[in-house]
Design goal:
Order of helices and strands: HHEHEHEEEEE
CATH architecture: Roll
Keywords: Signal
Shape: globular
Distance between the termini: 13 Å
Organism: Amphilophus citrinellus
Helix content: 25-40%
Largest sheet: 4 strands, antiparallel
CATH topology: Mannose-Binding Protein A, Chain A
Bound molecules: 2-acetamido-2-deoxy-beta-D-glucopyranose
InterPro entries: C-type_lectin-like, C-type_lectin-like/link_sf, CTDL_fold
Protein name: C-type lectin domain-containing protein
Mean pLDDT: 80
Low-confidence stretches: 17-33
Number of domains: 1
Length: about 150
């Protein structure tokens, strides 16, 4: 709908800082209100370049909060390794600020061990691996939609 389109424009404008940030007026909870749509970007980039690309062209790198979303991201990535928005530096956080609760680590993967700065990628089977952030790898971005009820 055109309301959704307007909302998306506003979101990307806020994200790029091109409009005055009125957080008190325009405030919502990504985790409960977002309805993400994932997009594979088939370009090999480092995690931080991928993050920049997603923020400029979509909303952010993919945040995965449940199995359903993980499946959607895997369907986009197919058998390719692909960056998702999870990062450890040194705490683990999602690029978009979502709370880190759902996890899907590959067996034997210890997200707290090893390198000091690491980034997460989906492996070919949908499990998460921590890698050196240089990659380069393709990546999955997301766009968020908010359900706006029109009268
Ligand atoms: C990305 O790199 C991989 C591994 O080097 C290569 O097989 C693939 O073709 C590259 N993809 C693109 C879009 O350049």
């Amino acid at each position: 709908s055109s309301l959704t389109a307007q909302f998306l424009l506003l979101l990307s404008a806020l994200r790029s800082g091109s409009v005055c940030k009125k957080e008190s007026i325009f405030h919502f909870n990504f985790r409960t209100q977002r309805n993400p749509e994932f997009h594979l970007v088939d370009k090999n980039m480092s995690w931080s370049d991928a993050q920049k690309y997603c923020r400029e062209n979509f909303l952010d790198l993919a945040t995965v909060t449940n199995h359903g979303e993980n499946q959607q991201v895997q369907e986009k990535a197919q058998k390719e390794m692909a960056w998702i928005g999870l990062h450890r530096d040194p705490n683990i956080y999602w690029s978009d600020g979502s709370k880190h609760s759902f996890t899907n680590w590959a067996s034997g993967m210890n997200p707290f061990g090893g390198l000091s700065v690491i980034c997460a990628a989906l492996d070919g089977s949908g499990r998460w691996k921590m890698l050196s952030c240089e990659g380069p790898l393709p990546f999955v971005c997301y766009m968020a939609f908010k359900n706006i009820h029109t009268p």
